[in-house]
Structure formats: structure tokens, C-alpha cells
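Readers of this paper often ask what the protein records in our data store actually look like. The remainder of this section carries one protein's record, kept here as part of the documentation.

:::
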Amino acid sequence: MSSVVNYTSVRDMWSSLIGNDVVKNSMSVNAFESMRSILHFNDNTNMKPLDDPDRDRLFKIRPIVEHLNEKFSSVPMRPSLSVDEQICATKTHHYMRQYNPRKPHKWGYKLYVLCDDKGFSHQFEIYSGQTQSRLASEPDLGETGNIVVRLCRKVPRNVNYTIYCDNFYSSLLLFSYLRTQGIFALGTFRRDRIPNIPFTDKKEGRKESRGTSVEFTTNVNDTKLSMVSWRDNDSVMLGSTLCGVVPMESIKRYDRKAKKYIDVPCPQIVKVYNKHMGGVDLMDSHIGRHHIRLRSRKWYFRMFYHMVDMAVVNAWILHSTLSETKGMTQKEFRTDLGVTLCKIGSVNTPKRGRPSNDSPSCLKKRTLTAISRPPKDVIRDKTNHWPIWDEKKNRYVSSWLGGREGTGGTRSATTSSC
């Protein structure tokens, strides 16, 4: 609910003026804060000491990470998958906090995520600075290559699945290994990771006309790869085991000298990369619009809230995909989900015995219209509070009579009747 309505403090949800009735009816503020103060996800007595080399830095939230990865990977994957890093923004001073100038939130915990082209997260891994273990059948492809291999362990083999990544992860050995596993790969490359391929120098490439492309093919461990250099605003280098330059297509680009849009030839590998690469960025945009805004001094609570946001976004994407009609917005989905979770366990049982005066059956029999009691500020302002005389003698119960019935011909504006 805090991701839908922005409160400056969590206690404002129970405020008598601006509070949320659904939250207030589910539990008290003291019960909520007491539950959050003792909330743990793992047994701290089993945590290894700081000087132990096998100590897991994510021990406090490891069960949550493993459980969500198992549930996310159980959903059938789409053929186009992308690997990229994600930032869980935080202001805390923690040794696992990273700085990434290319992200909207520069400081935070870093995650490596495997998403499809609709933004659904199938696997994620939290960066902790520790070297992750490899399986016996997996080669050592460097730190970045091993990340892609770990995230792709549950990707179906030999059914035309494609992994898209940027130049932080791409390497010839990684693409060759994925192809031997029956998975295609496509991504941008850094020049120092493409040895012995006669591409023009970066300075010379800037002198080429816009839209110029050069393609070379190479074999790495009996795997054929296509390497393409394309000149747009700057020289871009891409590699793939899926496609190459042909078929060439035409795209629109703005020419500053001519002050108009011109047609620029574009290789097929660039079109495919731009179409399917932004899955992780799409999930970031979904979480950025609505995310849990609760704050805590415990570092792992911020990570826990981020993982809950990932689960909610995945559920919303599944709901929109499987819905036969037009799906609801993320805000509507989060609102319905929050209301449903707050009402779990509440049972409305009918009362026994004679109905009270506040029951609907008694309210229907009354003929008098109830007048609400004014606020105290209005009662005590000493301005024009006189009795209202009425010729009819009506029966009423006034609050100052202590619940006894009486008759009278007057009814004051400062007296509430039932």
C-alpha cells in the first residue's frame, strides 16, 4: 500500500485524518512496528563469523533470494532474454553499496538480472563482492562471463533461445560456449575483446560516412561468429551467433548539417539488438513508478522491499499477459493486491441475539434524520448556537440524556440525535 499512496512516515497510515482505513482495520500500528522489529529471514545463530573465509555476506536474506529465483524460473521463458545490471537505490553507508553513473539512481546495491523483452525477471543475483562457485561442467570465462553462465543455467537448450547483453559481458569465449549449449547470443563488444580482426581504428572510423558497416566472420572453438562495425553517431561494434549485416534496412536519423531527417542504412544485427535488449531497463521503469517507500535502519530490509517489488511486477506482467480483456494498470493491480492481503484472515460473523440500535434493521425503522455532532472547535466558538424550535413533538434520544428516551419540541444544533 505504501507504493500506491506516498506517506512521509509509515505511522501516517494509521492517522485519524489522512490514514488508510484498510490498513487500520487490518492491524494496529504498534502490532505492525513490533512485527517489523523482530522480522528475520534466516537463523542468525547459524551465521559464520566475520573472519571466516566461507562466510556468506547475504546470509540474512539468502532464503528469500533462493525462493524467489526458484519461483521466477518456474514460469515459461520467452525466446528473447537479456542480461543487465540493476541498482536497488539506497542512502545507507554499507560496504556492498555500488556506484554506477549510467543509472538514474547512482548509489545502491547492484543486481545482475535475466529478463525477457517484456520485463519479466526470471533470475537475479545480488553482487556482494564474493566469488561465486562454478559447476564442474562450466568453464571459467572471467567474472562477467561467469555471471551470464550462472543466470542462464535454467534457460532451455536447443530451442532457439537468444541471450542479449552489452559490452560489459560480451566476449568471444562466452558466445562460443553459449552456442555449444544450444543458445544464441548477441551483444555489443569492446575493441580490446576482439583480437586479430582488422577493423578500422576508432579515430579513422569517425571519418567514415554515417551508415557505413563492415562485417567479418570468425571461428572460435568451431563456432561461427559474425562481427559487425557500424557507423552511427559513433562507431558501434557488435557480435552475434544469430544474425549478421543482411538484410539491410533503412532507418531515420536527424542530420544537423541538412537540418532534416535522412535515410541511413542499418544492419539487421543492430535492429534485432535494439528490439530485444531493454528487458531489464523496462523492469526498472516499472519499479520506479511504484515502489515500496518504507525506510529502515537495517540494510537488508531495503533489499527485501526491492525483491517484493520485483515479485509484484512479475505478477502484474503475468496478469496482463493472461488476461483476456484489457489488463489493469500497475497502480490498480498493486491497490487490489494490497487490499486483498490486508483482508486475509478477517471473518465477518453475524452477531447473536437481538440486534443493537446501530444495526441496519433498526436504522430502517427510524423516521428522524440524524444530525451529526459538530466538531469541538465549532461548538466552542460562541457564535450563533441557538435552539431550533419545531412545532411537532418528536421522540428522540439525545447524547446528554445518557441514552434515555424523551419527548420535546426543541432540537438544538449542538445536540446529536440517533
Observations:
- The chain has twelve helices and 13 strands.
- The longest helix spans residues 299-322.
